[in-house]
Amino acid sequence: MRHDKAAMVIDLARRMAASAEGLTLGEIERDLDVGRRTAERLRDAVIMLFPQTEEVSDPPNKRWRIRGGLSAFEQAPTTGELVELTKAAQGLRATGEPGRAAALEGLERKLKSAMRSTTLNRLAPDLEALVRAETIAVQAGPRPSADEAVLAEIRQAILAGRPLGFIYSRPGAEARRRSVAPCGVMFGRANYLVAADRESGRVQTFRLDRMSGVRAEEGVASPPADFDLQAFASQSFGIYQDEIEDVVLKVSPDGASEARAWRWHPTQSLEDQPDGGVVVRFRASGMRELAWHLFTWGEQVKIVAPERLKAVMAGELAAAARALDVTRP
Q1: SS in 3 state form for 30-56?
Q2: E runs forming strands in 138-187
């Protein structure tokens, strides 16, 4: 039955596209041999799927038609798609990514300029209402930086298979000139270049906001043949990469419901406990970032393993205690 209804919607769309003057509800009833209510539902389905459908006044009736053929319609963005594009650009701008935001805003303008004015005018009220009704909640944390010129050099080196040279500065360490084989970029709470050392082949991460003098160099430099950026990113709890550990966390009954709905890691598994709690298991690196996250769970999460995570958490707690031990006037 669902397939039959889908076929009827497509059939009606074709009929609207083939008619220069458009179809009335009465003609839809007659041509498709359906009742009035079904004709209205089919018309509404066509309008939803093909947002460039035009309503034409033909007193005492109304007609609906699709001008330009179905191929043009199938590529027309919907209100929901335009809203998501707008929100994605706003989210990037709100989190300090003006270059990437500008790219999406430019794409949005191109899409709108390619749309028929009648379609754009029909979508505009709903689009404006949804944009006003939704916003981005910006959370405290590192402010990422993705300078357009830096990204352009990185992308050029990746596409050309050339080495990437830059000066890298880390707090407490002397700035060094580096020459690497770029593998890709990871965007997140901070933005990182992923690159392989040209001599050892070891894959490392470099924060973009700590890189200067970025230039694509002469020569050939490709990522390791078996390198997969997505698999590399999935190894870590956050961004920072170190030794991969088997992590086991026990969540109390008070936090179990939230823990079950939480995406801890791509490799996670959850095991319900008799007391109503839950045990979370996954393999990841980045114990310090994991420890920082576990602070937000308070007493609801107990670290079962690994021992290194316990040690990192103890060190972070000691540092926090020292920060609170201040002389008050």
Answers
A1: HHHCCCHHHHHHHHHHHHHHCCCCEEE
A2: 164-168, 176-186
Token pair 């050892």 is found at: 200
Let me know the angle formed at the C-alpha of 208 by 184 and 102, rounded to the nearest 5 degrees: 85
Q: Other CB atoms closer than 10 Å to residue 323's CB: what's the count?
A: 8
Full-model pTM? 0.51
Question: DSSP label at 92?
Answer: H
Q: How far is CA 172 from CA 141, 210, 277, in A?
A: 21, 13, 43
C-alpha to C-alpha distance for 53 and 83, rounded to whole angstroms? 19
Predicted local confidence at residue 140, as pLDDT: 46
- More confident of the two residues 257 and 68: 257
Sequential DSSP letters for 255-293: HHHHHHTS---TT-EEEE-TTS-EEEEEEEB-HHHHHHH
pLDDT > 50? residue 1: no
